[in-house]
Specification:
The structure is a homodimer of 194-residue chains.
Chain A (H helix, E strand, L loop, with lengths): L5 E4 L4 H9 L4 E3 L14 H16 L7 E12 L2 E3 L5 H11 L3 E11 L7 E12 L4 H11 L13 H6 E6 L1 H5 L3 H8 L5
Parallel strand pairs in A: 1-2, 1-3
Antiparallel strand pairs in A: 3-4, 3-5, 5-6, 6-7
């Protein structure tokens, strides 16, 4: 897909970059340093959009007039608890064990930033239900030790060993769970297609 | 995952082989030559299991006593019509265009073959709803010319450019749509874990 503007990804996630490559989009990457704290009274979808727009606000002043930026936020929610990234083995083990045999929700926010548009930041959210089969303890231990999932919300990657082996079904956009709602992105980018 | 028997994949699909690698399974591959014609009175799920078991019956006599085999079949259904592989550009275009803006069903069958078990062939089926956004004609044309999806039921790959860009959501097992219900496979293989 060819665009009339230069795309800037405000994320260092290799999975988001790979999706843009899968979409045949040319882009450059800018790292952002954003405090992802959100007000606790927000709902899951509101939180994802809030954090995505925090990132968008950080990216906006870095963009030139011929650039458009994208930011995204992905989080795991179970029983009204927000799961960020696990800090260590014990936290990762506890997170994955609490997801075992249950359906949790992955909520993601996506923002498009166009410095020369009337509304400079547009956002959308995506909610996906993800169901895990029972995960035996040896599998949780093996997964954490082999794949070090400390860069992922909820301490798992749907596209990795534990996702292939133990996720029985999802309801929603698969790519959102990996880290970017690519179909929503394409809809947002349609006005910029050459 | 380490098994007490040697795994034999009765398929030449590179996507199925990659899934077994993702699951860290050792396996070997045997190509099968099977006529995939199924009785027209069968339902979608019955057809997928019928074809998977045709492949299983072809694989069974090739297996040694310390081997277990797996076969699978994946098909696309829309409005009671079974979509196999497209023979040429025109068929692929017509298939993808008919999926555009609609929800279709991907049905897959999975069979496990153990020559030394009481029931030598066990099968399961998986049904997944897949929703496409509207796909513009330039995108269908670009996809077919660039990705040559003639080895895929329904003439598309969910993990490819067209899937990333235009599939809004699914309900069911993502890996089934790619070509193998890996979570069901792990459940089937549990008795063989070392």
């Amino acid at each position: 897909m060819k665009l009339t503007k230069t795309l800037v990804l405000g994320s260092q996630s290799p999975r988001r970059a790979q999706f843009l490559k899968d979409l045949e989009l040319d882009f450059k990457t800018l790292p952002l340093d954003v405090d992802e704290t959100a007000p606790s009274e927000l709902s899951a979808s509101e939180t994802a959009i809030f954090v995505s727009e925090l990132k968008a606000s950080a990216l906006l002043p870095l963009l030139g007039p011929d650039e458009i930026g994208i930011t995204s936020d992905t989080e795991v929610w179970l029983d009204n608890r927000r799961y960020g990234k696990a800090a260590n083995y014990e936290e990762a083990f506890e997170m994955i064990q609490s997801l075992s045999g249950k359906t949790h929700v992955v909520v993601s926010g996506l923002s498009i930033i166009d410095p020369s548009a009337a509304s400079t930041i547009q956002s959308s959210s995506s909610v996906v239900e993800v169901s895990f089969n029972d995960i035996p303890e040896w599998a949780i231990d093996h997964y954490i030790k082999t794949y070090s999932p400390f860069d992922k919300a909820g301490a798992y990657g749907i596209q990795e060993w534990i996702g292939r082996g133990f996720i029985s079904e999802i309801k929603g956009n698969y790519n959102s769970v990996v880290g970017l709602d690519t179909a929503a992105l394409v809809s947002f980018l349609t006005p910029y297609f050459k």
